């Protein structure tokens, strides 16, 4: 069961915001939106390709980043 505890004196809108961010990080809101309407196999394939493209873009960006210079490496000017 997902939920957040409302602390004494805490505004309800702040507790709702915490709940919403919690559900968003777990991917529950996205899944709920996706299941709201029928998705054809073609749409499902396109969605998966889009998400894979985003993952690969991020992976490529960080894998090709220049390596950090270590303290032992000689510095050339």
From TrEMBL:
Record-stated family: Belongs to the bacterial ribosomal protein bS21 family.
In the UniProt record, the gene name given for this protein reads rpsU
Q: What is the recorded name of this protein? A: Small ribosomal subunit protein bS21
Keyword Ribosomal protein recorded: yes
Q: Which GO terms describe its cellular component?
A: ribonucleoprotein complex; ribosome
Organism, scientific name? Luteolibacter ambystomatis
* The keyword Ribosomal protein is annotated on this UniProt entry: yes
Which PANTHER family does the protein's record reference?
MITOCHONDRIAL 28S RIBOSOMAL PROTEIN S21, SMALL RIBOSOMAL SUBUNIT PROTEIN BS21M
Named from the GO MF annotations, one term is: structural constituent of ribosome
